[in-house]
Amino acid sequence: METTFCQSCGMPLQTEQELGTNSDGSKNEEYCVYCFKEGTFTKDITMEEMIRNCAQYVEEFNKDSEVKYTKEQAIEEMKQFFPTLKRWKKTDLIRLTDMIPTNICQSCGMPMAAIDHFGTNSDNSKSEDYCCFCFQKGQFTHSKTMEEVIEENLTYMDGSEKADGYALSREEARVKMKIDLPRLKRWRAHQTTHQEYYKAVNQVIDFINKTCIPPITLSDLASVAHISGFHFHRIFKAVMGESPGDYIQRLRLEKSAFKLQTTRLSITEIAEQTGYQSVQALGKAFKKRFKVTPTVFRKQPEEIKAPVYLVKNSLCRLK
Q1: Which single residue of 113, 195, 259, 262 could bond 83 by disulfide (Cβ 3.0 to 4.6 Å)?
Q2: Could you give the CA distance from residue 292 to residue 263 in angstroms, rounded to a whole number?
Q3: Cα separations in angstroms, 299 against 215, 257, 286, 294
Q4: For residue 189, what pLDDT band results from cuts at 50, 70 and 90?
Q5: CA-to-CA distance for 103 and 130, rounded, in angstroms?
Q6: Helices (H), 211-293
Q7: In 3D, which of 318, 219, 221, 217 has the Cα closest to residue 262?
């Protein structure tokens, strides 16, 4: 039998008798019989407690080893080795709230207990914020979303994850990480950026609703948002689902439709009030959107049922 190590205590697994057992009675090749029986861990224990427990056997270890360790040396060696074992590799990410910001990767939440676990900056110095799996040479190693990182973290679950003393199911762990990971530096920055984008777009929407009569240029709107014109156009469309120009055009036409239904203003007056240079310009744009002319719409509004429901919500402040 090939020698492997228990992924909980680090004990060499040299015989089948030393293997733990799964819930169906079969042998578990990852954990020893002292750590894992009938599909569950035999002790609810932290990595630090496991290290202290194993350190009690250092004299017994020295009897069969050419290299002799003191208890203190053995503890230091285990502090380096244990975080690479499956049981301890990812489990503490479930306890992010208690451990942030001490040696927790600010991307995936992995505990960084050994110097080799830390990522590297562009000058090859160690990054104190990110692990070697997420950050190398000053750059992130992947462009995964926070949701994708959570799903990857779930693949490391082995049944030992707990919160407040209770075992976590896969779904419970997912929910907890959705609460905890946004507090990490990498995702906190993303959330702040997204909030700023929404705030900027809302400011522009207020500006458009108050002054949607042309001319309004992209530069005007970008200045209100304090974002460059190129980025503003992309951000606005991502948030609103339409370009700034399409949004303004839609509001002007819906305002025109609203006035046709609720006032006795002439079509010429409505065209002037909504920023169209002529009745013909309004008529052409109106028919393209609502499939009928303004005159027909005014005569038969109930039958046509044009989509003017947004007017009351978006344009109620316009006079």
Answers
A1: 113
A2: 19
A3: 31, 12, 15, 9
A4: low
A5: 9
A6: 218-225, 229-240, 244-262, 267-273, 279-290
A7: 318
Sheet strands (E) in the chain? 4-5, 12-13, 19-21, 27-32, 36-37, 40-41, 118-120, 126-131, 135-136, 139-140, 162-163, 166-167
Contacts of 148 by beta carbon, 8 Å cutoff, 6+ apart: none
Beta strands in 33-171 (DSSP E): 36-37, 40-41, 118-120, 126-131, 135-136, 139-140, 162-163, 166-167
Helix axes 244-262, 279-290, angle to 10 degrees: 100
pLDDT at 286 over 90: yes
| Separation of alpha carbons 31 and 37, rounded Å | 9
| Amino acid 81: pLDDT | 83
Q: In the prediction, which pLDDT does 190 show? A: 65
Amino acid, single-letter form, for residue 292:
V
Among 167, 51, 163, 49, CA closest to 97: 163
